[in-house]
Design a protein that fits this description.
By secondary structure, the chain is an alpha+beta fold. Helix content is 32%, strand content 14%. It has three domains: 3-135, no CATH class; 138-323, Orthogonal Bundle (Transferase(Phosphotransferase), domain 1), CATH 1.10.510.10; 334-398, no CATH class. A five-stranded antiparallel sheet has the order 3-4-5-7-6. Strands 8-10-11 form a three-stranded antiparallel sheet. The protein is globular. InterPro entries: Kinase-like_dom_sf, Prot_kinase_dom.
Length: 399
């Protein structure tokens, strides 16, 4: 059998978990949703692939990962909006909680960050299964954070959403990285491909992207599969169980009851530590709060209201210039950091000689008595011309 870059025609065929969705294609279409071409009933892979593109760029190669076999992306026919379909049990906790937070009494509350349930379709041949229709969301770092303010806004929205859940007597119990997502629709005015998010739906053209700070980005809590909803008058709101994405939670137990609301605080604190503190060097202002949220003793952790209040306070106390600055990766070299700072200023229309002098002040000097290093001098000289190419040339030659 012919092979192209390790791919054969056999590789492109639908897996068993994919035929589940292919067989639902007519039903979904009758309800206003269509799947990608790969899942059309009459689909056949194009073989051999076109000579001008790689196999991985074609719809034929974009199969459904096995770990997501019960979920699939789709398009709402009426407006072209991307959605996610998820097959769940009619009696599942996830469906019950999602329905509650999408009910008339709470769905329009601006603090509600639970993923909206757009529609619930009864499976045509399995009365025990329901197909949830929800907005198509992306991980919070796809695309990556641009500025410190982006990170602070993300954290505040998530904490506000978690507090909203807690006020409604619902503990999420699994609010880790994979279950905190965002709606990036406004950032991609020309759309994007659900599996190749850097590309337009044609899979080959880079998708134009707007900065988060220039549009409205909403963050959501998703997946209520192990969440617990308590009655308001329950005196003891404790649980048992060790399931969940965050395995470092100290109190998890199958036998000893624990407070799931304080567990939520730990899980979110661990997310902030892993995705913010460990990746960016200029968000240290959140470190004390993260430490308190991930305290070993649940009793010493703040509740959601206190954590949100503390987050908002530190956000207000962080100078505007610092908040608007780019999020600096911990793995950046010093030279790389200086160049990215200069590039940011250029993009904002604020690159001048004084700004570059400030940026290059981070670079090591030869000695206190002999003045700036040759690299500093070259960068500062290049900045006088307001020419980003000159700065790039200096940086590239030194890197």
């Amino acid at each position: 059998m012919a092979e192209y870059f390790g791919c054969t025609e056999q590789n492109l065929r639908l897996g068993g978990h994919e035929t589940y969705w292919r067989d639902l294609f007519p039903f979904l279409e009758s309800h206003g949703y269509t799947l990608r071409p790969r899942y059309h009933p009459d689909w056949k892979p194009v073989w051999p692939p076109p000579p001008d593109i790689t196999v991985a760029q074609t719809e034929d190669w974009m199969g459904l990962p096995l770990y997501r076999s019960r979920m699939i992306d789709a398009t709402r026919i009426s407006d072209g909006k991307l959605v996610i379909l998820k097959a769940v049990s009619e009696t599942s906790t996830e469906l019950d909680i999602c329905r509650y937070f999408s009910s008339e009494t709470v769905r329009d509350d601006p603090r509600n960050r639970c993923i909206p349930l757009l529609e619930a379709l009864s499976h045509p041949s399995d009365p025990d299964t329901c197909i949830m229709v929800m907005p198509y969301l992306r991980n919070v770092d796809q695309p990556p954070f641009d500025t410190v303010e982006d990170i602070l806004e993300c954290g505040e929205q998530i904490l506000d959403g978690l507090l909203f859940m807690h006020e409604h007597n619902v503990a999420h119990r699994d609010c880790a990285y994979r279950n905190v997502m965002m709606d990036v629709t406004a950032m991609y005015p020309s759309g994007y491909h659900p599996l190749h998010w850097r590309m337009l739906p044609d899979t080959v053209t880079p998708a134009p992207t707007l900065p988060r700070s220039s549009v409205s980005v909403t963050y959501y809590l998703i997946d209520f599969g192990i969440s617990t909803r308590f009655s308001p008058d329950e005196s003891s709101k404790l649980v048992v169980g060790v399931k969940g994405l965050e395995s470092t939670v100290p109190e998890l137990s199958d036998t000893v009851p624990y407070d799931p609301f304080k567990t939520d605080i730990y899980i979110l604190g661990a997310l902030f530590r892993q995705e913010f503190l460990s990746k960016f060097s200029n968000v240290e202002m959140i470190a004390p709060l993260v430490a308190s949220m991930t305290a070993k003793d649940p009793a010493t952790r703040p509740d959601a209201a206190a954590a949100l209040e503390a987050w908002r306070l530190l956000r207000r106390q962080t100078p505007t210039r610092h908040r608007r600055w780019r999020a600096k990766g911990r793995d950046e070299s010093l030279l790389g950091s200086v160049f990215r700072d200069a590039l940011l200023l250029w993009c904002r229309g604020g690159l001048d000689h004084h700004a570059v002098c400030q940026a290059t002040a981070q670079l090591p000097r030869r000695s206190a008595s002999r003045g700036p290093s040759a690299l500093q001098h070259a960068l500062e000289t290049a900045s006088k011309s307001h020419d980003i190419r000159a700065i790039h040339t200096v940086w590239s030659g030194a890197a």
